[in-house]
Design goal:
The protein is mainly alpha-helical and 192 residues long. It is built from twelve helices and no strands.
């Protein structure tokens, strides 16, 4: 579990080689891979796609299906999140929006949505569906911690942009700066 957590932290910091090293070390003890398998391999596929612009979306779909069979959001949401990252990197818009919608549907107002908020927000906004998050925002604010606050502030800013674009840009920059301070480089890049 610790190695997967470290891999995720390194992914979010943009330190992808270290993320991959943690996954490789994790693989050395297969019985500990268990329900984290789809998320870990999905992370590898997402990194590969982000670096090269080439990916294996069918393999990612298989990993997502495996995680869904587990009926555990700890497995489902990370695999779907990495599927969004991969689909963005390879320009597969149908998969981007399908997985983003599924993250919202699966997660509801659990903390798991917050773990996948950056790519989900980006995908929904890019496809004109950010309003899917609006009914969830108030309930998600119960997670009053720095990362959720920054993520939710970013969503609020994008939702408010049509009314006051200048204020929205300032709010997004503030949220991104807070994400960088927390080491969440990948989230900050999406927020900006």
């Amino acid at each position: 579990f610790l190695r997967q957590t470290l891999a995720t932290d390194y992914f979010e910091m943009g330190r992808w080689d270290e993320s991959l090293a943690q996954i490789e070390a994790f693989r050395q003890i297969p019985e500990r891979f268990a329900y984290l398998y789809a998320g870990a391999v999905g992370m590898e596929l997402a990194i590969e796609a982000c670096r090269s612009g080439v990916g294996d979306p069918d393999r990612m779909d298989e990993l997502v299906a495996e995680s869904v069979e587990l009926k555990d959001l700890q497995a489902i949401v990370p695999s779907r999140s990495y599927a969004v990252w991969q689909a963005i990197a390879i320009g597969d818009e149908e998969r981007v929006i399908r997985q983003a919608r599924a993250i919202v549907d699966d997660s509801g107002t659990t903390r798991f949505l917050l773990d996948a908020m950056a790519p989900t927000m980006w995908a929904l906004h890019a496809h004109g569906e950010l309003s899917l998050l609006e009914p969830l925002l108030q309930d998600l604010r119960r997670f009053d911690m720095p990362r959720p606050r920054a993520s939710l502030d970013a969503v609020d800013a994008v939702l408010a942009a049509p009314a006051d674009p200048s204020a929205a840009v300032a709010s997004l920059e503030d949220a991104a700066a807070r994400q960088v301070e927390m080491g969440l480089v990948t989230d900050a890049v999406v927020t900006r």
